[in-house]
Design goal:
By secondary structure, the protein is mostly helical. It is about 60% helix and about 5% strand. A hairpin with a 4-residue loop joins strand 1 and strand 2. The longest helix has 22 residues. The chain binds zinc ion. The site of zinc ion (ZN) has 4 residues, from helix 2 and helix 4.
Length: about 160
Amino acid sequence: MGPFYCPSDEGIYIDTDFYKQMETELGASGQFARLYVIAHEYGHHIQNELGTSKQVRALQERNPRSANQLSVRLELQADCYAGVWAARNGDKLEPGDMESGLNAAKSIGDDTLMRNAGRRPTEDAFTHGSSAQRMQWLKKGLESGNEDSCDTFADLKR
Ligand SMILES: [Zn+2]
């Protein structure tokens, strides 16, 4: 099972085998790749605190057909928050860290995972976003260092 955030006990759960899998099967190595995974889950904690997760769940219940799309937006926002966290700790980043984070984001994109599993990527089935999207939003957070740049729901509000 992949890493997850549990809203009821506000805990982050990561099977350390996932890190091994990331390195060996997904080609995402480096300490920062691991930190990105934790920061992403912490992003879900922020969404829980801000009520975003709850709003999205309500939207998903009202509109089950858009459930996956809404999930993608929530996941991409967690990626962006992970980037903001990294940017705010920029003094601790080492050369190559940003690349290793972006490479990790790429390796766990839905299209890449589906292709690796021998399936044809179908966007309707995406729940976390494509590799390109995951890299794009992590990068956005990394470059802005500002959580306001992480509004993955902006075009829904128009
Ligand atoms: Zn997530």
